[in-house]
Amino acid sequence: MSLLEARDIIAGYGRGDEILKGVHLTVDDNEIVAIIGPNGAGKSTLLKTIAGLLHPARGSIMLRGVPIHGLSPREVSRCGIAFVPQEQNIFATLSVRENLEMGGWLDPAATRRRIDDVFARFPMLAERRSRAARTLSGGQRQVLAMAMALMVQPVLLLLDEPSAGLSPIAAEQLFATIREINRDGLAIVMVEQNAARALEIAHRATILVDGRNNREGAAAVLAADPDIRRIFLGATPTEQP
After folding, report:
1. Helix (H), strand (E) at residue 13
2. Which of these three, 124, 152, 180, is where a domain ends?
3. What is the number of domains present in the chain?
4. What is this structure's pTM?
5. Within 13 Å and on the Cβ side, how many CA atoms surround 31?
6. Do 6 and 25 meet the contact criterion of CB atoms below 8 Å apart?
């Protein structure tokens, strides 16, 4: 049984608005699945639907065989799915520690222990625990956003464009952090603008085009496909991604 299985998802932002037109997605334990595709393909909409921010008009979303479509974001979070949006994913005026406390809202009694665990995992955050989040760099803010998501001890982490707006160096550091989190046993679904890099760190990938599944399979196989490299990775068959 897959960790997550979404089938025939039709969803959008209003009545009759079909951004997703029958999309399917599976995620197994301990793997990274990348979702790539052109702008407007429905990538972020799919994450929001899984997270409960949007309810599908049709289709099913199962977490370990239990239906979660139609649940509120709070209920989905309690089931073990944490969503990190691209924007407005931290509380800028609060300190780093206060942000983590906000992230642990589902289980306040365990918050202190989990904050200690997060600081042990991310020494950079521990060093800045008393600073306002707005003083962090872009990459540091993204790490804080992921750390807040880890406070609920999820089984599945949803990341929406985590490297957007980051410098190449900051993006590489963030990708390294994502791989470390995955190595610790957490499954990750990642929508990422840097398709080439996403395919390098993912185990599997799905390509969405116009709200539909276009291709899916092992990330390394998709990355080596000349047509995919030409259309989605901006490379010619003789170039290295």
Report:
1. none
2. 152
3. 2
4. 0.92
5. 17
6. yes
